[in-house]
Amino acid sequence: MIRCVVIDDEPPALAILADYIGQVPFLALAGTTTDPIEGLTWVQQGRADLVFLDIQMPRLTGLQFLRLAGPRCRVVLTTAYPEYALDGFENDVVDYLLKPISFERFLKAAQKALALLAPVSATAPEPPPVPAAGAATSAANYLFVKGDAKNKFVRVDYADIRYVEGLNNYVLLHLPAERIITYQTLKELADTLPQPPFLRVHKSFIVSLDHVQAIDGNTLYVHDKLIPVSDTYRDALYQLVRGGRGGR
């Protein structure tokens, strides 16, 4: 479970993000505040894994907060001002959300944070030991994708994804018993999926190495599908294979 703190000088913004956090199974709300000094204290006390941080605040701006907090937690910046995006990414933030923030865009940022924090969370001791370990392991092994209706999200286990096919602004996830189409670019999904086992091998394909049954030159055999490997991604593929990461 990823502990979240929301810091924003506007109470309505706090309420929206608190509600979004409550809808995501792998996030837990640890606190909200309009006072960035109070929020910084929480971070320094180790109360947060992830901070949703406004940039324009009195007393202490979001960028000043980043410099003071250092590497104690991950940060998602929230703001109505796109001109601060470069400053944010230069400070190694997880994501940059422009207000008004939709739940779909929020969920994408949460999935990015999960990919970064899940390996740490899985090994962190949290009481009670057995449930906490199980929860962390579960959180590290799936993602949510937008479904075919408004506010519908579908859980997909990483282990079930054989390969992903890009279709302009949509992606098609190929699973053992079904295919799921979702509004997202292949690059956006590639930034979310754990690597390995997932690897982009072509401008239109991401594969799970756990489902690759054979490699023949520039062709991958993934169950009954032949996936092309482009020259751009071939060296990275063979480096992983020679390093001992095989299919099952």
Automatic annotation (TrEMBL):
Work out whether the entry's keyword set contains Protein transport: no
GO MF: DNA binding; phosphorelay response regulator activity
- Per the database record, which ranges form the HTH LytTR-type domain? 150-243
Q: Which InterPro entries match?
A: CheY-like_superfamily, LytR-like, LytTR_DNA-bd_dom, Sig_transdc_resp-reg_receiver
Give the UniProt keywords, A-Z: Phosphoprotein
Q: Which residues carry this modification: 4-aspartylphosphate?
A: D54
Domain Response regulatory residue range list: 3-114
The molecule here is called Response regulator transcription factor
